[in-house]
Specification:
By secondary structure, the protein is mostly helical. The chain contains three helices and no strands.
């Protein structure tokens, strides 16, 4: 059992890369494209979320939601 645990730990540390088989250059190139698309999508989602937060903060500032007293009487 201890032998299997050591093999698994070595595999997880990437010391036994031959266990899972070496990837060919073509496989690496083909897998690069979806990884790049995923990375760009995550950056785009993050930027959209950040822009939405800034927009909501600007709307709150213009509407005076952060003021203690209303800027316009009657509201």
């Amino acid at each position: 059992m201890r032998f299997l645990v050591r093999r698994l730990e070595a595999f997880n540390r990437d010391e036994l890369s031959a266990w899972r088989g070496a990837q060919s250059l073509l496989t690496k190139v083909v897998l690069f494209v979806p990884r790049l698309i995923e990375l760009l999508m995550m950056y785009a989602i993050g930027l959209v979320a950040l822009a939405a937060i800034v927009l909501l903060m600007a709307i709150g500032w213009v509407a005076g939601l952060d003021r203690k007293t209303p800027s316009r009487p009657g509201f």
